[in-house]
Design brief:
InterPro entries: TPR-like_helical_dom_sf, TPR_rpt. The protein has about 100 residues and is mainly alpha-helical. It has a single domain, classed as Alpha Horseshoe (Serine Threonine Protein Phosphatase 5, Tetratricopeptide repeat). The protein contains 4 helices and no strands. The protein starts with 12 loop residues before the first helix and ends with a helix.
Length: about 100
């Protein structure tokens, strides 16, 4: 699968369509179908935290609390990795500046 990046503004049209369709299905009272759409969207954009958070929210609505906790832990890990990478980039830039 292709990774389309992290920013919600730069989602390709298929991912936005899947996310919108999942929201519509939730409004219609079809959370299981919404989960399928969110899983497809996460496969296209695995680094997008908003999609994983939406998936966690829907699984809590259904009552699958174990999966919801797993999703939240995955989000926490990604945020921690992003902070680590940002700190490394800042240190590298500071080192270059002083050379």
């Amino acid at each position: 699968m292709r990774d389309y990046g992290r920013s919600a503004r730069h989602h390709p049209a298929p991912v936005q369509a899947l996310h919108n369709r999942a929201s519509l299905r939730l409004a219609q009272g079809k959370p299981h179908e919404a989960l399928k759409d969110l899983k497809k969207a996460i496969q296209l954009c695995p680094n997008e935290l908003n999609l994983t958070e939406a998936h966690s929210r829907v699984t809590r609505m259904i009552g699958d609390y174990g999966q919801a906790v797993t999703d939240l832990k995955r989000i926490e890990k990604k945020v921690k990795n992003n902070r680590h990478l940002a700190d490394r980039r800042a240190a590298e830039q500071a080192r270059r500046q002083w050379e």
